[in-house]
Amino acid sequence: MDGGTNVSIDALTRLTAALAEDLQATNRAIVARMDSPVALIPQLAAHLVAAGGKRLRPLLTLASARLCGYQGERHVQLAACVEFIHTATLLHDDVVDESILRRGLASANAVFGNKASVLVGDFLFARAFQLMVADGSLDVLRILSAAAATIAEGEVLQLTTQNDLATTEQKYFDVIRGKTAALFAAACEVGAVIAARPAPECAALARYGMDLGMAFQLVDDALDYAADAAELGKTIGDDFREGKLTYPVLLAIAEGSGEETDFWNRTIGEGAQTEADLATALEFIRRHDTIARTIARAREFAESAIAALAIFTASPLKDNLQDVARYTTARGY
Amino acid sequence: MDGGTNVSIDALTRLTAALAEDLQATNRAIVARMDSPVALIPQLAAHLVAAGGKRLRPLLTLASARLCGYQGERHVQLAACVEFIHTATLLHDDVVDESILRRGLASANAVFGNKASVLVGDFLFARAFQLMVADGSLDVLRILSAAAATIAEGEVLQLTTQNDLATTEQKYFDVIRGKTAALFAAACEVGAVIAARPAPECAALARYGMDLGMAFQLVDDALDYAADAAELGKTIGDDFREGKLTYPVLLAIAEGSGEETDFWNRTIGEGAQTEADLATALEFIRRHDTIARTIARAREFAESAIAALAIFTASPLKDNLQDVARYTTARGY
To answer: 3-class secondary structure for A259-303?
Structure first.
């Protein structure tokens, strides 16, 4: 996976370089618009927003707009707005439940507390809508407010499937479509919309974003059980500890029996885990080869994303976006 | 305060009766639009939204629209949208901090957990924006997205003033203007905006809502220390236990010395409380007569709210809205 990782980073690095000016303008907009007389807001938001990060979602907005020949300035503000929505969901994802606290798993929000994460997330979400309103396009507002509702639905659905061994593949795909892919899709679609492209091109970019997001999340869920990710300094097993029914584990549960079934019932179903359980989970996952199968599923979505861009004429940016999809399934980011 | 309570309920009851048809339509819109294929969303939202409640904020939108002679249907959807924003903030207010959990003060969200409160709140917030987008007025979107940002700023400011004995009156008023009055103001203003009234009337209703909201929150903060509220079956002392620097306590702290200062430093500043401390707090508050003084301050805002409506011609609805403001300072709701 090492070679793939490098190639993957390369596709994204090239995209970032190609859009460097737009991205710098977006970063300036982000810092300017997350300001508030209430000092804790920029302080806390800076931890996530201003710190940089990959800016993958705003890059998609910028790239989609440019792919569609857009020449104005609106894509910069909308890219900032997409990043605010993403950051708000990250902050709200950080909120810990009583049950998790009891298991001693307090997360990043420990510095500021649950409530601050929630409220600063709310501020960024509201600010995102103010940016959209300032942009003035009801079409853009329609796409992003629908995405925001879908994200919340996906997150709630994920919550209800947590620890539920009866979770179906269909439900899993509904969860990741909502919590991840919907914003990728919206981020891309608005780029085409502000360029006033015809409906098929808007739909093609929405499809590209949706499928890229699906691939992205499948890989993310695979990496959480990938031992070599641990060697890269990433923590693994978070999803296992939280009892999330992700794809690699869904497949292993479906095909396991006897001691495996008992194991999943206890560790995921009842959430009763010991330190040693992660190693056993990894062993069962290896036994059913579900990481490779998860990546293979991701590859199908990536292929679909690549195909969605077929209607656009050839350009370095189109190649670059297709490469980003192509190498999502080998990413280390 | 008993007589006042009855009069207060009466003004709101009359308003509710005058707008009964609009309100029923709003309730239908609320139930219809909080639906989702993700079952937990309507389940949890129903606890707050569908259960009924006073619907004070949506009533303000309905009443403002009607006061401005509005004859269409848009006010119903926007009233639902205002209620969704309010309910989202209630759900997010329910989120408990680790520190509060440690003090054993888990709240209403105990049934579903922190995370569900956050995510269902997010859904309602996003759905509110979808309703506004469907309405199609950028002016309405501007007003309500600005209010949403201001609410979040007010809530964060409140968080940063918690346990901070140096909190100024100015800061307290900034907090309640943000967390409460901004939505009252926006709820009223959009009623005038959809009726396409001239700017002074829109501003007058925004002013009415803002001042009514300030009065409302001041009274709320007074009632939290009002022993006779306890007799009405309300819990008192919540703000004290959470270390909130509300007006009655701000005044008492400013004028206390010696044992009083030591007491506030320990109980509010350090948050180190025992069961018996609330009685002492009530005693110090009585000593400085700060409940009556808080109500007096609320009365000033209520007077300003009443005066704001002066530019409208006489009508039963105008009288009714002025009565609602007048008796806010004697309310039991």
So the answer is: HHHHHHHHHHHCCCCCCCHHHHHHHHHHHCCHHHHHHHHHHHHHH
